[in-house]
Amino acid sequence: MLRYIIRRVLWAIPILIGVSIVSFFIIQLPPGNYLTALMASMRATGESVDMSQLQTLSERYGLDEPMIVQYWKWISGIVLRGDFGQSFLYTRPVSDLLWERLGLTFILAFTSMIFVWLIAFPIGVYSAVRKYSIGDYVMTFVGFIGLATPNFLIALILMYVSFTVFGQSAGGLFSPQYLDAPWSWAKFADMMSKIWIPVVVIGTAGTAALIRIMRANMLDELPKTYVDAARARGLSGAHAVTKYPLRVALNPFVSRIGWELPELISGATITAIVLSLPTTGPLLLEALLAQDMYLAGSFIMMLSVLTVIGTLISDLLLAWLDPRIRQGVVG
Amino acid sequence: MRQIPMREPDTLLEVRDLATHFFTDEGVVRAVDGASFDIPRGKTLCIVGESGSGKSVMARAVMGLTRAPGRVVGGSVLWCPDQDGQATDLATLHGNSRAYRAIRGPEIGMIFQEPMAALSPVHTIGTQLAESVRSRHAVSKRETRERGIEALARVGIPEPAARYDQYGFELSGGMRQRAMIAMALAAEPKLLIADEPTTALDVTTQAGILDLILDLQSETGMTVMFITHDLGVVAEIADSVAVMYLGRVVEHADVDTAFHAPAHPYTEALLRALPSIHAKTGERLAAIPGMVPHPFARPAGCAFHPRCHRFRPGLCETREPENVPVAPGHGARCLLLKPARKAAAE
Ligand SMILES: Nc1ncnc2c1ncn2[C@@H]1O[C@H](COP(=O)(O)OP(=O)(O)O)[C@@H](O)[C@H]1O
Ligand SMILES: [Mg+2]
Predict the structure, then answer these.
(1) Given this model, what pLDDT does residue B57 score?
(2) Which of A4, A109, A219, A295 is 20 to 30 A from A89 via CA?
């Protein structure tokens, strides 16, 4: 087991290096660079260009130097000093913007994931065990509606309901008085009172998808002989089902965590814009539109890093759950 | 549970006209359709028949483990655990009822055909074995483990304590099947149903497993219902034989009669398909002309008539044969047979 973990963790290192190279390449793709764009915009607004300031920036990022040197300056800044560069758009260090947004995004994504699991798991199992029952059909129907409804529509409906029924404006994650306040229990409680709308919006499609997956996994396992063998040893039907096929059906479920994490973080952009959530999605979109390359590149890199970490977590969970993987029989 | 007096107090299990049908989208599959046999206490009954004759479906019906879309639609499964001659009709119990669960495991154990498929891929042997131990004895965790390891040792598994914590896929085929036998036997059942327990194994391993079952039977006095399509195995272990064809028992006799004076042409054909009665195990029944028809296309009259070497036109395809008692303890379903008493009177 330990060897497996070490091997998996070591494997993540070259992948992360590759990811950083690709991210850097992406931020270099637009013609010109951050400084020429900055100069152009300063000239356009009639500001005088401070050549010495440009010179320091140019040296700091090595903008006149070869790509490889630039990459090295960028990545060593990130790895050694946590310096992701400067946002052209906000004229603030990218790291300031990044961590705040990423933190809230993570909270939202994590809450959504728990929501999705809590709902999808029991319903999926129920739908499989009671295949073709009325309950199964109802869940399937509701699930497909959830899948087919665009998130922004659900978001608009919930905002409307929240406003007319609860008299609460549903935008954002915080009430105005807490927006810039430091973290406190009151701020946390305020966030929790607002977070359910984005959680429901983001989670609906995922819940519907996961119900189908859980149902299919269970249907694969339920007819297996080992379930009957357990019943032949005197276990009740319900006990045999929860002890055996549920455990096996969990594996494909867990392996999804890897790509669910980044999907939850980047996939909710439209929802985040509609609900004006202070998460990464809208900012990344903004950065890409404005060619704010260090901001965009850093976000892309962090999302990729999250993907790698998510995959690593699900691999380790899988190994913990499945002895065949742990011992290298499969996978 | 209603108690029914048995006709023969020495009988542990009496199956009468058992029928399991599968209600599929394509139609009703009459997988078992009026099967009757009985097993005396402490004896071994072999159920033989080609693949698809309904042996496994019948075994599951006895265990109360019939799978949807299948349902036991008729007949009785009289279970008489004590010598007092009072029986319970298992066919009237719901498969998931408390009463049935109290019987599965501690009263009737089952070994499935594929040992790999019958073991969970993500649970240890011990986890599964422990259920069996606890179905019989309410003992502590430590004692459960000790008894489980003991059960593994008894079926001849080397290093049983290490095997207890291993997974099914880490064991060889023979060891897996031994582990399955250990699981069934750890609950000390009165009846062991073994559904082709040696089919997936090589000849040497097969012989080892058969010896093991025979040893354990003489040790514990348990009754065995052994399903096989291998007549070599039958010759080795059976006290009596029930031959199944398309969901029915077409002949039921003690082992000597079945081998030396079979009454049903199907049994004759099975025996002729066997190169030699003394042949080693592992021979498949292949040489009967034609194939087992699908239960959808059950031939009219006697279902075996299209393949029968004694086929009599005008008779065999027109009437369904009843069970004819050709001698005490020997019956066969063939229209050409005459009952023992009538035959003597003529
Ligand atoms: N789930 C099922 N649905 C439909 N038919 C089935 C099902 N299970 C078994 N059968 C049918 O029952 C018949 C007997 O099967 P089985 O008892 O497995 O035969 P055997 O064990 O003698 O080889 C077969 O014709 C098979 O097609
Ligand atoms: Mg079978």
Answers:
(1) 95
(2) A109
Give yes or no for B267 touching A (CB within 8 A): no
**Protein residue whose Cα sits closest to atom 11 of ligand 1:** B31
Side-chain-facing half-sphere of A299: CA atoms under 13 Å: 27
Give the DSSP letter of residue B67. P
Judged by DSSP in three states, A218 sits in helix
Amino acid at A286: E
Distance separating alpha carbons of residues A260 and A257, to the nearest angstrom: 5
Selected residue of A226, A248, A251 to mutate for chain B interface (largest B Cβ count, 10 A): A226
Q: Check: CB of residue B48 under 8 Å from CB of residue B231.
A: yes
- Give Cα separations from B256 to A243, A274, B221, B267, B280 (angstroms): 46, 84, 22, 13, 18
Contact B108, B44 (CB under 8 A): no
pLDDT digits (tens, 9 = 90+) for B35-70: 999 999 999 999 999 888 999 999 999 999 999 899
Residues near B201 by beta carbon (within 8 Å), at least 6 away in sequence: B173, B174, B177, B209
Tell me which chain B residues have a C-beta less than 8 angstroms from the C-beta of A223. 67
pTM of the model: 0.81
Q: What is the residue extent of each domain of chain A?
A: 2-81, 98-330
Q: Report chain B's terminal Cα–Cα distance, integer Å.
A: 46
For residue range B271-309, what is the model confidence (pLDDT) as tens digits? Answer: 887 765 445 555 554 467 788 888 788 899 999 999 998
Q: Which chain B residue's Cα is nearest to A320?
A: B122
Amino acid at B307: R
Q: Does residue B148 have its Cβ closer than 6 Å to ligand 1?
A: no
Question: Tell me: the pLDDT tens digits for A143-186?
Answer: 888 888 888 888 888 888 888 877 766 677 787 777 777 888 88
Residues within 8 A of A (CB atoms), B 26-85 only: 60, 63, 65, 67
Q: CB pairs under 8 A, 24+ apart, for A179-184?
A: none
Cβ contacts (< 8 Å) between B119 and chain A: which residues?
Answer: 226, 229
In chain B, DSSP assigns E strands to: 3-5, 11-24, 27-40, 44-48, 70-79, 86-89, 108-111, 191-195, 223-228, 240-245, 248-254, 324-327, 330-332
pLDDT at B285: 47
Lookup: tokens for B156: 């001849």
Cβ within 8 Å, pair A225-B117: yes
Would you say residue B173 has pLDDT above 90? no
Strand residue runs (E) in chain A: 86-87, 92-93
Q: Which of B67, B110, B167 sits opposite A232 (nearest CB)?
A: B110
User: For the segment B67-92, what is each residue's pLDDT rounded down to a tens digit?
Assistant: 989 999 999 999 998 888 788 999 99
Half-sphere exposure of B310 (CA within 13 A, CB side): 12
Task: Say whether A236 and B117 touch across the interface (CB within 8 A).
Answer: no
Residue from B20, B21, B22 whose mutation best tests the ligand 1 pocket (most atoms within 8 A of CB):
B22
CATH 1.10.3720.10 fits A98-330, yes or no: yes
The phi, psi pair for B142, rounded to 5°, reads -65, -40
Decide whether any atom of ligand 1 lies within 6 Å of the B259 Cβ.
no
Q: What is the ipTM of this complex?
A: 0.88
Closest listed residue to residue B325, CA positions, set B302, B342, B308, B303: B342
A70 CB-contact burial (10 Å; exposed 0-12 / middle 13-18 / buried 19+): middle
Which residues on neighbouring strands pair with residue B332, listed in sequence order? B251, B324
CA distance A248 to A233: 19
Task: Centre a 10 Å sphere on the Cβ of residue B10 and count the other Cβ atoms it contains.
Answer: 13
